[in-house]
# Entry
Amino acid sequence: MADKRITIRATRFDPEKDKSPRLQSYDIPFSDDSMVVLDALNYIKSHVDGSLSYRWSCRMGICGSCGMTVNGTPKLTCSAFLRDYWPRSVTVTPLNNFPIVRDLVVDMEDFMHKLKSIKPWIIRKQEIPLGAGEHRQTMDQIGEFRQFSQCINCMLCYAACPVYGLDNEFLGPAAIALARRYNLDSRDQGTKERLPMIAHPDGIWECSFVGECSVVCPKGVDPAKAIQQTKLDTTMRFVLPYGNRE
Amino acid sequence: MSAEAETATRTYRPPMGAGWWTRKGHYFWYMVREFTALPLALWLLWLLYEIQRAGRGPSGYYPPNSTAFVIFSAICLPFALYHSFTFLKLAGVILRVKLLDKPLASGVIVATMFGTWLVASVVVGAVLIGFGR
Ligand code: SF4
Ligand code: FES
# Structure
């Protein structure tokens, strides 16, 4: 099987020379069934064209940096096996809905800003002193938010979301899921501080439940669920007389 | 040149074409789901008009005897069923109900929603037809 080959088509864009991106084809050996799309890109970079630019780090689906569009679907390229595409060619383009910086690299600035805006840390009205010991949680309390804490900030959900594609002001799936993760944490008291961002017209109410974010999420976070549940909770806070309690 | 303008010239933002919803089956069915609300809204408007006429007494209210309304209702029915079905199917995702401190399985929530839908439909249907007599 040593001479099995596969065609990889990758986006090339040099901001100094190109007006718009173009696709370049590479015919490379598909030597091993365990090869992933990221391996193919690494092969191209090492043996064919050292100028190809893309992000990656852990190669094991943890760091979230290798997200790209593979044959039209946002994927972690370190978890997308070539065997699932071969003998078809594989087209690798940058994540949709983000500005392209170079080749397969996108500008993450907007995403980073949105993540920070929902204050993704435990907020306490009054910190308890270190000597008083840890904040204890039961397994049930952890179970409340565990799913939403699995996010690796890979941005695949933003690339899959047409609402974000049409209006970049939308807070977006991962940021809202992360806000929910902290709001559901029994140690946290910051729901009111996050509300202005979440209940803002560019927050949860902009989502029309396409649901593709949850389909592409590699960590089973289900951001669509987080958003819809937040819509319901926020409405209850507004409607019920005791809804505004902490 | 400001830092912002410099960034703007250095990056390329691919345009999102009007045909984005044809790119994936999931997007397409989302659009179908959203559009099924349109005949539903029209039907409700018609019904509101009829209810307003009913204010002048039962003789002004005639939907069940109006061929146009019956035909339009028959056309709207599959759209309404599809919209309700997709909406209620998702209820298990959205609603978090706890019973004796344990979260209720989403299947149970969905089944309850469909059951309530059925009962509500029978009641509303009986009222509308009964009032029309
Ligand atoms: S919610 Fe899922 S798809 Fe979105 S950034 Fe987090 S891990 Fe990635
Ligand atoms: S390289 Fe880290 S998730 Fe793919």
Notes: The pocket of FE2/S2 (inorganic) cluster (ligand 2) is lined by residues A 56-59, 61-66, 76, 78 (CB under 6 Å). The mean pLDDT of chain A is 94.
